[in-house]
Amino acid sequence: MGDLAKIFKAYDVRGVVPDEFDEETAEAVGAAFVEVTGAEAVVVAHDMRVSSEPLAAAFIRGATSRGADVVHAGLGSTDLLYYASGTLALPGVMFTASHNPARYNGMKMCRAGAVPIGSDTGLAEIRDRAAEILRSGAGAGTDAGTVSRRDLLRGYAGHLRSLVDLSGIRPLRVVVDAGNGMGGHTVPVVFEGLPVELTALYFELDGDFPNHEANPIAPENLCDLQKAVLDAGADIGLAFDGDADRCWVVDERGESVSPSTITALVAARELAKHPGATIIHNLITSRGVPEIVTEHGGEPVRTRVGHSFIKAEMARAGAVFGGEHSAHYYFKDFWFADSGMLAAMHVLAALGEQDRSLSEVLADYTRYAASGEINSTVADQVKATARVRQTFATRDDVTFDELDGLTVSGPGWWFNLRPSNTEPLLRLNAEAADEIQMAAIRDEVLAVVRS
Fold first, then answer.
1. Which part of the chain is the Alpha-D-phosphohexomutase C-terminal domain (predicted)?
2. Hey, how many other C-beta atoms are within 10 angstroms of the C-beta on 311?
3. Burial, 5: exposed, middle or buried (Cβ in 10 Å; 0-12, 13-18, 19+)?
4. The overall pTM is greater than 0.90
5. Which residues touch 442 (CB under 8 Å, ≥6 apart)?
6. Nearest to 181 by CA among 154, 208, 159
7. pLDDT in tens, 254-264
8. Mode of pairing for the β-strands spanning 406-410 and 41-46
């Protein structure tokens, strides 16, 4: 195996199987995880990828070799793993590559209570210790822990339904695109018995993703859902990513709904239950989010992109909810962890509690024109960003901040340009008062970046 730095990212592990990430590595990481965290027991789950179960088994060998007992939850979504970590008060590891193509796999790790492990909170130490184990060949230990199987799916579904009561909503026609990912495993159980007429797309678990990538942030992956919503005359469409921790919403017109709009809607619902509470939003979400939070009596707090950062800020501030532009949604009453399913249930509740269409409901939470995230492949991220800064530096009424990448704000508009953690990309998000102004800013920045 090569340098583990290639697969250990800022807040998870991700790599091509088996070239970058194989069972030997997973076993070493299992041993390192126990040594670094001091865990006496660990809960493990995995998604439906062909490599996930063998990698999880290898991790379990490593963990038990260091004396830790393992609760093996088997197939699950990432938020099911967080539920397990929270209810069992155990550190947890989820084997998934989320929305990445079939050849990838990875790991998401947390401490007991779903507290995230990122590069600054233990992930780097786990990486370095795993590298030492691989170099020395000291993979086997002498103090074997035990392994017990536990089915947590119904407990997970019951917990979510205790947080958002959907029993009294009006009947709804709902289309769900699971993308052959873990939503096909969790949705039927969560929705069981609800007044929902469900149209299921691609619920068959298949880590080769034969229909489309399980990445709903890419517009081309929503086409089947949008068509199905219109064909069925449905009230709403929901699309989950591969590990079902993200959920994207499509309205009754087949129109994609910005996660910023969903963030604002759920924030308003949470503030109705917790007046004056803090709401976290990352710096890519619409400026409409902090405006709406303030209007509903809440305290908006802006943070950088990434689940380990937003979870840490939520815990520090005691925030009741947090939202990201990527359709990750975080809840205090879900151990500050993210759950696409829980966000979807909030949207279903907001829709089902009254008679308006989803587009009419969401119009109250949509204010600006946004570009969505646009990626550009660049040879030198730093130089390209510097060119953009120089282009806007001489203009009046323009401000800069570097909380995460480069954010430039002007009269009625803003954009953020930030580097990918894993690829030679710059990611652009732009927003303005209307489509014309947004398009002008977007196109100007892209021209400089790609020049």
1. 373-447
2. 27
3. exposed
4. yes
5. 371, 374, 415, 428, 430
6. 208
7. 999 999 999 99
8. unpaired
